[in-house]
Protein: Regulator of polyketide synthase expression
Organism: Streptomyces laurentii
Amino acid sequence: MTDTYERERDREYGREHEQEHEYGPLLADVAGSGRRLTRDELLRLRDSGERAAGDGEALRALIGRHLEAVRTAWPERSLSRRTTLDLLAVVEQSIDALSGGFERAQRLAVRQEEAERREFIDDLLHGRSDLGRIAARAERFGLHLSHAHAVAVACGPRPYGEADLAPQQVERAMIGRFGDRSILVTTKDGRMVCVAPGDQRDVLAYFAKQAFAATGGGQAAVGRSQPGAGGVVHSYEEALRALELADRLELDVPVLYAADLLVYPVLTRDRQAMEDLVVSVLGPLRAARGGAEPLLDTLTAFFDSGCVTTQTAQRLSLSVRAVTYRLDRIHRLTGADLADPTSRYTLQTAVIGARLLGWPAKQI
C-alpha cells in the first residue's frame, strides 16, 4: 500500500516538474514574441491529456495542475496588456488541447467498453463462447451466473437499438427502481432484453411494464428461470419462442410467460400428425360459403371466450343469433359436437394447430 502511494506521489511530482520546466521557456518566448502554440506543442499537450485520462486522473485535477504549473512559470517582470493577452491566449490553447486529448481518450475508452459489452451480450444470449469464460466475464457486467437467471424480451412497433429513446427510458426506470441488483438491460436484434436473477420475478414484470409504456403498447415474453450461463441462453430462446407463438396465434396480452405456453411446442412437435388433425377435422369447413376462415375465426373467439356464446358475439361484434348459427354450421360440416368434452377438445386442438400452421391461408 505504501509503495503504491509513493509511486503515485513520485509520478505526480514528476508531472508537475516536467510542466514547470516546459512552461517556463514557453511563456518567456510567448511574452517576447507574441506567438501562439505550434502544432507539435499542441500535439504534446493532447498526448498529455490522453495519458492523464488513461491514468484515471479527473479532468478537473488535470486542469488545476496545469494552471498551477502556468502560475509558477508566469514571467515575473512587468507585462504590457498586449503581452498579458498573448500569454492568456496560449494558456487557453493549452487548456483546450489538454482537455481535447483527455476527452478523446475517454471516448475511445467508452467505445471500447461498448464493443466489449456488445460482444459479451452476443455471447451470453447465443452461447457462442466457452460458458466458463462467459461466467467469468459476466461479473464485470454485474451478473453472477452461478445463480439461476431468467430473461425477458420485449418488442414494439419497430426495431430498437441501445441509442434509441425507448430502451434508454426502460433502463433508467429499472435503475431508478432496483439500482444495482445484478440486472442487465440491453437490446438484441431490435428487441429490448432484460436478464435478472431467477428468483426476482418482480424485476422482469416491471421491465415488461416499462417496455409496454415506452413502446406505446409493445409485448413482452418472460422465459423460465434456468441455472448457469447456458440457462440464460435457454431462457432467452424460450422468451423468443413465446413472442413468435403470440404473433402466430394473435395473442394480444401484454406479458407472456413461457411456462404458460409449454403446451404449444408439445402440440407442434409432431408436425405431420398436427397437419393430419387440422385437415381431417377442419377441412370440411372449406365447403362453407365464404370459405373456412370466418368459421375458424368464430371457433377461435369461442374457445378464447371460455366457450361462452355471448362473449364470443362481443369479440366478433356479431349478434348471439349469428354466432349460434355459425356454431351450428360448424357442427353440421365437421360432425363435432361442442357439448361433448372429447369432441370439443379435439376441435380446439385442431383450431390451435391451424393457427400455428397458418391454415387455411397456407396449404398443408
